Amino acid sequence: MKKFFKVLSAFGLLAASVIFAFVIYGIKSIPDSIHLVSDEKLKFNEIYSYRISNGDGSVSVNSENAAKGTLLSEYTVDISALKVIPVKSADVIVSERKYVILSGDVFGIRMFTKGVVVVGSDDVYTEEGISNPAKTAGLNAGDIILSVNGNDVNSSAEIEKAVQEDNGSEMKLSVKRGKKVLNLKLTPALSKNDNCYKAGIWVRDSMAGVGTITFVDSNSGVFAGLGHAVCDVDTGIIMPLADGDAVKTKITGCYKGTCGSTGELCGVFQDTDIGTLSLNTTCGVYGYLKNIAPTSDAVPIATKHEVKTGPAKIISTVDENGPQCYDARIVRICNNDSSSSKNMIIEITDSSLIEKTGGIIQGMSGSPIIQDGMLIGAVTHVFVNDPLRGYAVFADNMLKVSETLNAEKQLEKAS
């Protein structure tokens, strides 16, 4: 009998541990606020079930937003494990399905920074010996110099002018480092080589490159491209965008990617600006296009919960023929981080694209990914040791950024 009770106790402890694990997993994995689109069903792991809190199946509707076609309904659900064990409550917000114009066209990125990015420092040879004003002042690579002596600076020429005009006097710098703004003091050194004062700073104030436009919102004119941020090549920080242009670009060829060597599209900027750049974020670059494609080509954007592993297609421009569809496969869904550009792993399976490029190459970032007739994401990174595979960002994440830009524009108009 004692043995029986021991077995029973062990079984009870095991069952309690499993139930506790279900509850903890549910609390951590199920968000407090769940966003759905009008034709999307509320789904959870088979372990969990839910019911609407008020019990009568009714939901509340914000009539003002519903009239605008944005918010359709909102309600609260009580979620349980194994149908009887309470886990948590979650707010459900149902919005209208969003539609955008697919692109896949290559564009040139011409970007100018807000402030100047410090990429390094240099010694200055003076009559008294070697000096390094930048290091002495406490400047680090990756710092962003916002102003000198209270005057905003956005170019290396403005830094140089300030150094010469101060004639060796102490300069007060406002410097952004991460999320902090620091006040530093720098005293230029007189170079014995050319008898000029030098700050000993290497800075970057602009950037140019090639990427792919993912989609365009025909109503607002906002476009999204690249899928990841434009970063400084030396420091890796996101370039602080002051302004920039999207430039028409002609593809002249490409370098194929191989294991250990990243391929690259070769493009030439044309003398035509097709739009302006407004945002440079972890989920891509955003701005406004001058000419918008017809709305009849609009496709729905999938929510991140609708994306699944399996067959897909990407739209890319890799030669003079313009955007073309190629076969691919979603290998793995990585996370639901709204700020990440690495939400899923994609594999190129199209033999014609592999023949041309070797897989994913630089310049293809931003290529739209289609699954079940919906835009699910955009290509962002290639695996250096496996050019057939790379990361992609959720289209849902890119949409949220583009809507933020549009909302800011509407506020500016209203004011």
Summarize the structure in words:
The structure is a single chain. With 415 residues, the protein is of the alpha+beta class. It is 18% helix and 46% strand. The radius of gyration is 27 Å and the shape is globular. The protein starts with a helix and ends with a helix.
Number of helices: 6
Low-confidence parts lasting 5 or more residues at pLDDT below 50? 55-69
The best one-word shape is globular
Strand content: over 45%
Topology:
Elements: H1 2-29, E1 33-37, E2 48-52, H2 63-67, E3 71-81, E4 85-95, E5 99-102, E6 106-121, E7 124-126, E8 129-131, H3 133-137, E9 144-148, E10 151-152, H4 156-166, E11 171-177, E12 180-186, E13 189-190, E14 197-198, E15 201-216, E16 222-225, E17 241-255, E18 264-281, E19 284-289, E20 298-300, E21 310-316, E22 324-333, E23 344-348, H5 351-357, E24 368-371, E25 374-383, E26 386-394, H6 395-414
Parallel strand pairs: 1-4
Antiparallel strand pairs: 2-3, 3-4, 5-15, 5-20, 6-9, 6-15, 6-17, 7-8, 9-10, 9-11, 11-12, 13-14, 15-16, 16-19, 17-18, 18-19, 21-22, 21-24, 22-23, 23-26, 24-25, 25-26
